[in-house]
Amino acid sequence: MDDINLCQNKAYSPHIRKTIDYMKVNYHKPLTLENIADCLGINKCYFCHLFKKEVGKNYSQFLNEIRIEKSKELLTDTDMSILDIALAVGYNNQSYYNMAFKKIVGITPLKYRKKFTL
């Protein structure tokens, strides 16, 4: 994902840089906005404002993009089921995963696997 890779080149505030780094490593875990803000020791509303201002998208959008990027690798590099991939990248509901994947990528995970697997 270009946006995620480009994040490494941008100068973010320490709170946002720490959040993005944490999200990239822990995408498979439940990452609630409340927990992130608490860990940073800042107000949730302020964190949301700061994240959107610096990253250009909200926290949930960015987290979904990270998870979908990781799932694309699993779809093409493994024979894991779609459900197992959804669970592995942090979704606890395959329907929501399918919807998020299609919204971001434009096709379903199954179509993506068929299209990009040799």
Task: Draw up the topology in text.
Elements lengths: L1 H5 L7 H13 L6 H8 L3 H12 L3 H19 L4 H7 L5 H12 L3 H8 L2
Largest sheet at a glance? none
Q: Tell me, rounded to a whole number, the average pLDDT.
A: 92
- Radius of gyration equals 15 Å
Please tally the β strands and state the result: 0
Residues in β-strands, percent = under 5%
* Structural class based on helices, strands and sheet pairing: mainly alpha
The helix content, as a percent range, equals over 70%
Number of discrete domains = 2
How many helices? The count is: 8
CATH class category of the largest domain:
Mainly Alpha
H/E element order: HHHHHHHH
Low-confidence region ranges? 1-6
Ends apart, CA distance between termini: 21 Å
- What is the CATH architecture assignment of the largest domain? Orthogonal Bundle
In short:
By secondary structure, the chain is mostly helical. The chain contains eight helices and no strands.
For the structure shown, list the relevant keywords.
0% strand, disordered N terminus, Arc Repressor Mutant, subunit A, 118 residues, 8 helices, mainly alpha
